[in-house]
Design a protein that fits this description.
Length: 171
């Protein structure tokens, strides 16, 4: 899994599918009868009465699972990469070992590549977080349900693990 050519198509499938979720919100609006009042509630029982709402939240859960599993796999890969870079550095620090003149340059390039990939992964996480937040805010605005706060609290717990992951490498 050569991780991040995020500009290319490598991880495109792991990004939140915002357009599709937006279409599902429009379907929720279409399925609502004109005489149905806008409900300002966060009661799951109330939301579960509408099949389009249930389908929307199943999709949200799938999208969240997809992005978080990709992120976890990348975290594991980056941990291994970091250990390899660190081992290389320690090997170069050993006294009495002769290295060619390009060894330090190759190590520096490996560090730079690693740092760029970590920044791209951070961007991936932040952009997906914003996408989930935005689609839930749109859902709440259109449907009248209050779902953003509970979902954001859940996503913040995931995001906090992201922050600690990056602090470990960047400090």
């Amino acid at each position: 899994m050569s991780l991040i050519s995020c500009n290319g198509c490598c991880c495109r499938q792991y990004w939140i599918n915002y357009k599709y979720l937006k279409r599902k919100i429009n379907e929720i609006i279409e399925h609502r009868s004109p005489d149905q009042p806008v409900v300002h509630s966060s009661d799951p029982k109330e939301i579960a009465k509408n099949a389009a709402e249930v389908e929307f939240f199943i999709l949200i859960r799938k999208e969240l699972k997809k992005t978080s599993e990709f992120f976890k796999r990348c975290q594991e890969e980056f941990t291994i990469r970091w250990e390899r870079v660190w081992e290389s550095y320690l090997m170069l620090q050993e006294k009495g070992v002769v290295h060619d003149k390009n060894t330090w340059t190759r190590l520096l390039m490996a560090c730079v590549r690693f740092y760029k990939d970590v920044l791209l992964l951070e961007n991936f996480a932040i952009m997906n977080y914003c996408g989930f937040s935005k689609i839930l805010k749109k859902h709440d605005k259109v449907t009248g349900y209050v779902c953003l706060s509970p979902c954001v609290l859940f996503m913040l717990t995931l995001f906090s693990s992201l922050v600690f992951f990056f602090l470990r490498f960047l400090s």
